[in-house]
Amino acid sequence: MQDALVHLLEHNLAYYQQAAILLAALIMAHFIPLYRQQQPLFLFARLAKQFAVHVNHPQRAISQRKIAGFLSVLLLTLPFALLIYFFIALAYYPWFFEFLILYLCLQDSRLIKDSNRIAQLSHQQEKHKARMVLADWTSRDTSSLTTLGINKATIETTISVTQTNFTGVILAFLLGGAPLVLVYKMLQQLDEAWPNIAPRFNGFNSYLHTVLAILNFFPKLLFSAFFAISAGCKGFSLWVNTAFSPQSFTTALVSYRIIAFKFGIELGGPQLFDGIKVQQPKYQYGKPPTAEHIVLINQKISQFQFFTIALTLAITVLFPFFDFAIR
What is the full DSSP assignment across 168-224? Predict the structure, then answer.
């Protein structure tokens, strides 16, 4: 029996090495996050915005814009993905570069700290500084937001980013390693840089947005289910009735609704892109959110992230033993 367990551990050594890389990257990203403007993927998103200026022409037919968007995604992601793949394959210590890529792709955890800072600035009526911090995380217009608008936009941005990027990165790493994580994160950055609901990117981002809607369905489902369970029976019933609606595949509106219900606040409503107001569903379960609500929701999101880490590590570590027990 003991020899069999030793053989099991030796046979799955590479498997446990991947688990150690994941754990180390999660710890580093949580305790030593980079500032938003220092993150390589933030710079990649800026590159994507500049690239779109030259290839996205709103006056052209939708079919032409869809083709332009598809080719843009290939041109921006394929060279980087191939370069990283061959670089890891040829590296003497591939585990180090896998760790580095994973660490850089988990930098969205910085948003929790930044949104807490926005809450503090909002509470102090430092609206200009709060808008500047928020502008680094969203493509919507922030220059004219009121204190109420800052609070609501901060909560909605935090939900939209954390509900997919954190769990999605972990799943991508478990399924395909660091190269798949990088491709996934680059696609996410493109989708955030070219928001599908913005009139300027109507059609241009449709193919990418559809692909990510399918890939992100499970992370969104897990995120909204966590909040629904914590909201009690009524919250869970609300989740069951809305989680599998068509909106749940393409937007963060299900999570908006569940969180608005749990905290008794108002979320959703119009968003501003390039000076154009885009109507979105509004969920009113109480008063408009305050700075205190930002902090409370961030605390709950942190709990969700720790739950996801614990669940992932438990499955990763124990799976070989379950396989051994079955045999």
Answer: HHHHHHHHHHHHHHHHHHHHHHHHHHS-TTSGGGTTTTHHHHHHHHHHTHHHHHHHH
Domain count, the chain: 1
Question: Which domain does 278 fall in, by range?
Answer: 2-326
Residues 172, 151: Cα–Cα separation, whole Å: 31
User: Which uninterrupted H or E stretch holds 124?
Assistant: none
Q: For residues 249 and 219, is the Cβ–Cβ distance under 8 A?
A: no
pLDDT, tens digit (0-9, with 9 covering 90-100), for 75-121: 999 998 898 888 888 888 888 999 999 999 999 989 999 999 999 99
Count how many residues are written for the chain: 327
Contact 52, 201 (CB under 8 A): yes
* Rounded Cα–Cα distance for residues 42 and 149 (Å): 24
- What is the β-pairing status of strands 266-268 and 276-278? unpaired
Q: Model-level pTM?
A: 0.90
The rounded distance, in Å, linking the Cα atoms of 325 and 313 is 19
